[in-house]
Fold each of these.
Amino acid sequence: MNNIIIHGNAIVGQSGGPTAAINATLAGVISGMLKQKKSTLYGMRNGIDGVLCDHLINLSETFTDENGSIREDDLALLAHTPAAALGSCRHKLPAADDLAGEQTYEKIIEIFKKYDIRTFFYIGGNDSMDTVAKLSFYTEKVGYPMTLIGVPKTIDNDLMGTDHTPGFGSAAKFVATVTREIIFDCAVYTVPAVTIVEIMGRDAGWLTAAAAIGRVVDGIAPDYVYLPERDFSMEGFMDDLRAALAKHPNVVVAISEGIHLADGTPVGAASGVGPDAFGHVQLGGAGKALEYAVREQIGCKVRSIELNLPQRCGAHLLSATDIEESLRTGEGAVMAAAQGVSGEMMTIDRVSNAPYRTEIGHKPVAAIANQVRYVDAAYINEAGNNITDAGCHYLAPVIEGKISLPYAGGVPKFYRFD
Amino acid sequence: MNNIIIHGNAIVGQSGGPTAAINATLAGVISGMLKQKKSTLYGMRNGIDGVLCDHLINLSETFTDENGSIREDDLALLAHTPAAALGSCRHKLPAADDLAGEQTYEKIIEIFKKYDIRTFFYIGGNDSMDTVAKLSFYTEKVGYPMTLIGVPKTIDNDLMGTDHTPGFGSAAKFVATVTREIIFDCAVYTVPAVTIVEIMGRDAGWLTAAAAIGRVVDGIAPDYVYLPERDFSMEGFMDDLRAALAKHPNVVVAISEGIHLADGTPVGAASGVGPDAFGHVQLGGAGKALEYAVREQIGCKVRSIELNLPQRCGAHLLSATDIEESLRTGEGAVMAAAQGVSGEMMTIDRVSNAPYRTEIGHKPVAAIANQVRYVDAAYINEAGNNITDAGCHYLAPVIEGKISLPYAGGVPKFYRFD
């Protein structure tokens, strides 16, 4: 990669919700940039907010030792560190053709000029791609020569144009593994019981679908899986549970946090605000709402488990496939920038399924931003209460492989900027 | 171990809540028994219930191949399988001197005679030790020659007479690791926010205390840790949070599910279910209750995370120390039985802290059952809102070491009886 050319300096930032793999992508960008040696790579603290308040960090310096060698150990540590090491933000830029937003863009260009920044890498989800699209529009409009690349990241796997997203595989591995462990845990008693596992995913059910992967491995999977792609029916749910309880005492179901009734009402309303779709006072999300409903309508032992933050920050259970692809996506972004690609998002393209092989590509970000990629219809069964084998086989490769983290004092070692 | 003598046959069962290490102890008992070759080892399906309904499994046969060799691979798989492979129960035996309970004991003795069972291993927590104590009392009363050994197991670490319990180390490693990952996840935004991590522990706060271990490793730990050993004050809690928020925006606290006010009222309201068979009040929702209170009284962003079942069944993150000690405790139980010990519970005795070294011992179960071992006063700070360095150093060795599980299809392989 010594022949790549980056004009001026470059900057990289992270935005949106943390994942266990977003720092692997950052490590990929840093690694790619350090190999070309010419330009300096800056990091934004807390995404675009760091540009707006001139809070940058010189990453080229941070990851190079006094002899000019790359600090490979630190990069490796960074690649396995959860969350977003540079910090994140949830800053939606004003419309780029809106005069009221002009000041924001002028401030950004001022900082770019100050540090001679001509290349911009933004690692994030849908909203981050929106930032890349708007900055592309604006820099072109004012004629500031700029290369802008979006690098995908989301545990939701809901970005268009890419087979799957960096960060999804590790979250999916956590979901598949922990759901399996919960199934074992719930199997110890003979008393009829329902366990509801609530998994992240407001609009798209990809991560929840991962709970079913075990079925094509050795038959161990939840009895039912409910995604936001299908309308949820309380009557249908109770019928499903009764049918399962008639066969075995320990019923486990996986649900997406975003499941909703046919009229769009979320099964779980926002915490703390009024009754949910079923008139229960809310103490939690969809899982808690269903827990109360099962207790009331079936009357058996019932428990709900919200996998919560650990599913997106569980770095102790990374998918090796995900981390490797996340690194490659980051390095690929540097290559693409050097080739003059701009206004595009990096993609992971599945070349073959068996053996599993992917290539890193890129697509115009404007066609990707602000859209949602839903779970394919072919991956959801006809009854809308489970994942098809085709769905499991599509998902399975992205959770393959283990990463052995360095531990100290019994807990994993992670990287932190001072 | 070829010179040990077990009279008649033996039986082993698991009882109480599952843990990630209870099957390691079972594997230790099976391994110890198979080495002595003479007696048959039976397993109770679902604890003492399996005896009462004559639902036993021949473990000697199951773990021996056609050539008479021990199935070491299956035993290794069993040792890393979460929950309770034989199934569990929550059956409280009637008082052994109560005539009304006579029938139950007569039934048990009938099954013992049917299979010539003279040795009884029961792996469990406080309530299981109660079963051992009662059976000891009854068999002695009726003159049935029986060797009875309790083998401890609980993630709560609240059994008297032992330095710590098998199962605790793995749960503590999960709590320490996931809390660390949550701290990283919460650090990405600059908006003031409080995150409340709710950890299992009704009466004793050992597992919650494990969240603090990182502080003596590299300074990364929750801002505060609240245990049921100290009365909880809502005013004190809000003062603590305000002080922390004045220093940094991302405040993380760990709480035990069983924290309560000075008058004994649980911070989390009862979840609508009455006391269980052992008189425990069903708790839930301390984290949610505090989340609401923080939102109301401080008004910042706030989130609560219940670590829930994964903390006790997270076999993908076992403590090697815990698994090794659990195996040794199981094997030690067989040795103790062969030496004529009866009516005693196996113990883990800490011989030295640095280097960490333990020995397996035993103590009369009557002195242990139905008591609770609370967190030592020296391990809780004066303000009652954190763990002392001494506490962290006591806890640290039990989470040391990693176990590399076999994986297939991206998920861990576990053992199941057919």
Amino acid sequence: MTVFPKKVRIVEVGPRDGLQNQPRIVRTAAKADFIRLLAASGLEDIEVASFVRPDRVPQLADAEEILAALDGDLPARLSALVPNMKGLERAIGTGIPRIAVLTAASETFNRKNIDMGVRESLDQMGPLVARALREGMSVRGYVSTGWVCPFEGTIDPDAVVRIVGELFELGVDEVSVGDTIGAATPWQVEVTLERLLERFPPENLAMHFHDTYGMAVANAYQALRMGFRTFDSSAGGLGGCPYAPGAMGNVATEDLLYLFDRLGIETGVRLAGIRRASEHIASVLGRKLPSRVLATPSN
Amino acid sequence: MTVFPKKVRIVEVGPRDGLQNQPRIVRTAAKADFIRLLAASGLEDIEVASFVRPDRVPQLADAEEILAALDGDLPARLSALVPNMKGLERAIGTGIPRIAVLTAASETFNRKNIDMGVRESLDQMGPLVARALREGMSVRGYVSTGWVCPFEGTIDPDAVVRIVGELFELGVDEVSVGDTIGAATPWQVEVTLERLLERFPPENLAMHFHDTYGMAVANAYQALRMGFRTFDSSAGGLGGCPYAPGAMGNVATEDLLYLFDRLGIETGVRLAGIRRASEHIASVLGRKLPSRVLATPSN
């Protein structure tokens, strides 16, 4: 007899992970409305920005402006990705309470994604995380390509366990392990998660699945069955890029929510609220979002 | 340690279940090309037509013409849905080797779908199946709304077990249990399948999932883990109706195939071939199909 957790936590990453690859740059005011709608749906955690170099990711160049527009008046805890010490200084200036730092389980992917090897990225993260903690911020870590790398193929679970361990040692309170290209099967998810459970309690690990090949809900359900309780997702399944090859969107918040709701698991999030947020951003982007649930009629 | 089956069987239902709700009626020649492309991909079983009253389902009014166009020269085993004795006479006339008969686990759904109660539909099926078997045909049974009914809600697993049992007693060699509205979770799937396994061997049961709420791959994986080896699907995830509320498509053949391929399970089906069939029918219908895998670049 399976006992599902009574409550799970959804970490909405649409405003950051979802918007960063969109061909259309969303105006700050429209982004702020998106984030307000997300917070109004009951989401407790929203990743709203990235303090990357504005010329590298123009879609996310307005991190300070967004946080100023939101003015700290939301019920949700906001967080932002911080790639380096310069980004951290910017983040501190905005008063954001939580940051996220990023590395990968694949050496090749990490070099292509953030111009650093895995070792180097972990080394430069040490002082960064320490400084953020001294400033009273909390810190989340990301491990990209936790299962499959587009360049190296299948990832050794040992590499994931080792990097997750290093992130916890730096002082992050949560590590989100990502199937960045959405290529993992639930079986591969199970194998790596079993290894992680030997070392870490599930409450400190978040599951970050993309739905490129339609596996994301199955992967999330696999993790749920194994006791994991934190799931990253994007409203509408945002993240697919209509002009780039492949639709590499995050798993849709609506689709995860459907699963949790039907299983009687508390999330604190209202589907109708997420729909409103997704409909808003879909209209701003001028495209249909891939969430299955969003395509069904609302009641 | 999970042992996956070495081989699974995919039953392609796109030409029938997929096309029956499309607003655009596909010409016989284009349908025949679709079926030829499907067969060329390695699929062993394809449901190609329905001998319903042409005025009731105009999309499928050309059952005889399709079978004549295909002329029995395909490597796949073709089958067609047969609702009544009149339909069976038509099917016999075409020489098709396999038919399918349909009932539901929900009384209300069955009445709305085929104008008969469940008992009545099973009763009229008896002579129909017997006649088909005497003609040397093989017969598949369908149980719609095996988990959730849009009118009655959650379906009692006992009802499913009872109806599946009655279908086997009539002489069908396989029963396909359907999540007709795509509303079941993998947990609900597990509960009903456990009950079915107490009575029937998994090799005689097919899993028929729709992807309305994004649960279909997770449901298929759940069934796979429990030993089921036959899965119905539609190329491209065909079946969603762009004008009707909700996208009630079958699970996409491509998405299932991705899962099976990555797990190292044999299907005999080539993804590139399914893509070609999906691209053909998508272009005929003038719409994008919902399969996730189809949206990714082919290699």
